[in-house]
Design brief:
The protein is globular. Strands 7, 8, 9, 10, 11, 12 and 13 form a 7-stranded mixed β-sheet that branches. The protein has a 4-stranded antiparallel β-sheet with strand order 6-5-14-16. Strands 15-23-22 form a 3-stranded parallel β-sheet. Strand 7 (188-204) and strand 8 form a beta hairpin. By secondary structure, the chain is α/β, with parallel strands linked by helices. The longest helix is centred in the C-terminal third of the chain and has 27 residues, at 846-872. Helix 19 packs antiparallel against helix 20 (637-660) and helix 19 runs parallel beside helix 21. The protein is 44% helix and 17% strand.
């Protein structure tokens, strides 16, 4: 095939992706090979690709492609999450645009709109992942509302209820007034905000005395049912048993005493609003206080809000401030900074609210989930996330699993009466009727007499089953696929869902299969901009990954993203990184064209420089292959790519190809060319997981191959033997010699065509003399006699000389060397002064002092060399 002069990603990426798909290279089914399994962290079904997805899925693709080439039966399961709150919010907003209110629809009518939305927008992100090169088994694509996955959710709910782990209770919950649903503790984000602290006085009933409290939420005064002081507070002991009058509401409420009150904080008095604060609710229960709920679902005030009924809470906050001031109840207002709970999805300020909800007991299953991480069954990368994980599990509260939504898995509870306990839990309507008839001893009860719970389950209640349910391991716990692919191998995810998802998947694995769900968890960093801000659409600081791929190619973007993402560290994204990735692609392509452009001279014997270059590069390749294995074992994927980047750019392109390149106008010997192509193919295989499209294009151009012989299913190169690191070091010294000779040529304006002599001491390494001669056009003279009139330089402990040639400006050279000598002598004095300071020598760390001695030795050696050069001149 004719090789294009430039690599064009737009012409190759779709072509090769379709080729991989048509040949089903990504498909997996159980066989005799060991399984390597990854389940995708399912993105929202109506989501689109962002930079976080780009990083996460590139990492997964690198792992899965490498495993496939290492002989594993690689299975990457893709899919999407129904995302209850996010999707329902989008559907509700679209209905509003059409003049339709959700409240005017039946559940079935609303769900029809929701499915239409999902069918219209769902799956976009999965198609975008194909542009990235994601080698998922697309035949396995799952959706959390698929029939068998939904059946799994219902099944585990019933099982947990029957075990006594799920219960229905009247408790304080986090309420999102925009989504009009409860949230779990993990879905509440605490954001530091500037607010106000209102000091309000309550009149003691039957006196002119007042007691002052401080609150950040003056609107909740209308729900107060007590004022609380510490029983040991001498200031308020005389108020025991008395009442106060609630401002505006003019209700009489008791003054109670409780040790909860911190006497040193504020005024030492608390207003108690049991309906709207978790701590107040607990105090209220201890003192049997009345509970007055002042809010509607949308955080407007209800009838208990008196003349503020129907108004939004923040509007009321401003208006009640004025009313309190008008009736002289407002003592003062202070600026106040506190952390305010906000909804992770809608960003609305959360309202604590007492509500009947469904909960999952967490204490026992949390303990098991902690054990498997602490004993090393599941490994975290980076390890410091174990501390975060432990802290959450040791302080966990029961999981509120019910949501006031219609989009999602409906809770399988059926009610037949008005009392709290008048319900049954069952997988089907028929089973529910059977249980209800048994419980009520009423055989005449009909299905129509039962009413299924209106609420849906928390989205994460389906996601925590994901590694099991994608292989149908809940409904059919002993099927072939679950036994083969589970536990999965590695999980790649963000640290922001360590509680939402990672911990809960571990809990589910322990609970439903008595197995861990995965062996390793690699936490990626957060993608941030150059100002360290998290990339988001709202800030407008996130580029469109699809547009980036159009501009720089998928491989270029993949390289750019990975090079800046060390293990677990946040990624400071800069578009220049993608340019660097594209330039790397071009460098590889040009190297390929150079090799394929050489003509073979069958009469040409393999020169010594080629033999030496091949021996060095094969050792360097073996060294890097072993280093790559070590990096992947520690999930240091960015480090692995950087090693390959340097191996290809610096070692192969800049050094190896220059060493073996035939003389201008001549051909290359066949033996060297064959070895060059063999080594280049290995480099392409090593790079393939990182740069799948470019490497496949080159692989197919190198030689005519069978259509089934794709690089993506080729065998990953292994180190043929242990690398000779001493030889590699000798080569690096040889390159230092080359660099010094090139500097002399440049500084003295000596053409490369003019041959020079290099005088080497007998004791120095002579392993790569042919390479030095080829790269610098020198003749090597090995002797310990120092020539007169020569330029000198040092590499390691040896001194080398290049005798003068041609016409040079001696006075200019002497001036330049004298300037360098003066600098080195001044530097030496500075070092010697430091070393003569006993306080420094005795007080500084041993390594620091050793470094100063090394600086002194280097300076003395350089001074000696310069002085000899001056003497020669």
């Amino acid at each position: 095939m004719e090789i294009p002069t430039q690599y064009n990603p737009t012409e190759t990426e779709d072509k090769w992706y379709q080729y991989w798909m048509q040949n089903r290279f990504f498909n997996s089914s159980p066989n005799e090979k060991p399984a390597y399994t990854i389940v995708i962290p399912p993105p929202n079904v109506t989501g689109v690709l962002h930079m976080g997805h780009m990083l996460n899925n590139t990492l997964q693709d690198v792992l899965i492609r490498r495993a496939r080439m290492n002989g594993f039966n690689a299975c990457w399961v893709p899919g999407t999450d129904h995302a209850s709150i996010a999707t329902e919010a989008k559907v509700v907003n679209r209905l509003k645009e059409q003049g339709i209110s959700k409240d005017d629809l039946t559940r079935e009518e609303f769900l029809k709109h929701a499915w239409n939305w999902t069918d219209e927008h769902g799956g976009i992100i999965l198609e975008q992942l194909k542009k990235l090169g994601a080698s998922c088994d697309w035949d396995r694509t799952k959706f959390t509302l698929d029939k068998n996955l939904s059946e799994s959710v219902t099944k585990v709910f019933v099982e947990l209820y029957e075990k006594g782990l799920i219960y229905r209770g009247y408790r304080m919950v986090n309420w999102d007034p925009e989504a009009k649903t409860t949230l779990s503790d993990e879905e509440v984000i605490y954001i530091e905000k500037q607010g106000k602290l209102y000091h309000v006085q309550y009149q003691i009933e039957g006196s002119d005395e007042y007691i002052t409290i401080a609150t950040t939420r003056p609107e909740t005064i209308l729900g107060d049912t007590a004022v609380c002081v510490n029983p040991n507070d001498e200031r308020y002991k005389h108020l025991a048993g008395k009442n106060v009058i609630v401002p505006i509401a003019n209700r009489t409420i008791p003054i109670i005493q409780d040790d909860y009150v911190d006497m040193e904080f504020g005024t030492g008095c608390l207003k108690i609003t049991p309906a709207h604060d978790v701590n107040d609710k607990e105090i209220g229960e201890r003192h049997h206080l009345e509970v007055i709920d002042i809010f509607n679902e949308d955080a407007t005030l209800n009838a208990n809000g008196l003349h503020y009924q129907g108004k939004d809470r923040f509007v009321v906050r401003k208006e009640i401030e004025k009313e309190l001031s008008d009736i002289n109840a407002l003592v003062k207002i202070e600026d106040y900074t506190n952390k305010v709970g906000t909804s992770e999805r809608t960003k609305a300020v959360i309202e604590p609210r007492i509500s009947v909800q469904w909960f999952l007991k967490m204490e026992t299953i949390a303990k098991k989930a902690l054990e498997v991480v602490e004993n090393g069954e599941i490994k975290f990368y980076p390890q410091h996330y174990i501390n975060t994980y432990r802290h959450w599990l040791e302080n966990i509260r029961d999981w509120n699993i019910s949501r006031q939504l219609w989009w999602g898995h409906r809770i399988p509870a059926y009610y037949y009466g008005e009392r709290m306990e008048d319900f049954v839990v069952a997988e089907t309507d028929e089973k529910a009727l059977e249980l209800a008839q048994l419980k009520t001893q009423n055989s005449k009860l009909k299905i129509e007499d039962l009413k299924q719970d209106e609420d849906a389950l928390d989205t994460w209640f389906s996601s925590w089953l994901w590694p099991i349910s994608v292989f149908d391991g809940i409904n059919h716990p002993d099927n072939e696929e679950i036994n083969y692919y589970y536990p999965t191998s590695d999980l790649v995810t963000g640290p922001d869902i360590i509680f939402f998802w990672v911990a809960r998947m571990i809990m589910a694995g322990n609970e439903f299969r008595d197995q861990i769900p995965f062996k390793n968890v690699y936490f990626t960093g957060i993608v941030r901009d150059k100002q360290r801000r998290k990339m988001s659409k709202s800030l407008g600081n996130s580029p469109d990954p699809i547009e980036l791929m159009k501009q720089y190619g998928a491989d270029g973007v993949r390289v750019g993203v990975l090079l800046s993402s060390s293990a677990g560290s946040d990624l400071m994204f800069d578009e220049d990184l993608c340019l660097q990735g594209r330039n790397f692609s071009n460098k590889i392509w040009n190297a390929f064209r150079l090799i394929k452009g050489w003509n073979v001279d069958t009469n040409e014997a393999q020169p010594a420089n080629a033999q030496q270059g091949i021996e060095w590069f094969e050792n360097k390749l073996n060294l890097v292959i072993n280093q790559l294995d070590a990096d992947f074992n520690k999930f240091r994927i960015s480090d692995a790519l950087m090693k390959l980047y340097k191996l290809v750019w610096d070692d192969f392109c800049s050094s190896f190809l220059e060493i073996i390149k035939p003389t201008y106008g001549k051909g290359i010997d066949s033996k060297t060319l064959e070895k060059a192509i063999e080594l280049f193919e290995k480099l392409m295989q090593l790079l393939h997981p990182f740069m799948p499209f470019l490497t496949e294009e080159i692989w197919q151009h190198i030689e005519k191959r069978d259509p089934k012989n794709a690089i993506t299913i080729s065998t990953m190169p292994k180190a043929s033997e242990k690398a000779n690191e001493a030889l590699i070091k000798q080569f690096e010294e040889a390159l230092h010699i080359v660099s010094n000779i090139r500097t002399i040529r440049k500084d003295k304006q000596i053409s490369f065509k003019d041959s020079l002599t290099l005088v080497k001491p007998v004791e120095s390494n002579t392993k790569f003399d042919a390479v030095i001669e080829k790269l610098t056009n020198v003749q090597i003279d090995i002797t310990n006699e120092k020539p007169e009139g020569a330029f000198a330089f040092r590499v390691e402990q040896f001194e080398y000389f290049v005798p003068l040639t041609g016409s040079i400006d001696v006075e200019a050279e002497k001036a330049k060397l004298t300037e360098e000598l003066n600098y080195q002598q001044g530097f030496l004095k500075t070092v010697e002064k430091k070393l003569s300071n006993e306080k420094f020598v005795n007080g500084a760390p041993e390594q620091v002092v050793a470094n100063e001695h090394k600086k002194k030795e280097d300076a003395l050696a350089k001074i000696k060399t310069i002085e000899e050069s001056l003497a020669n001149l």
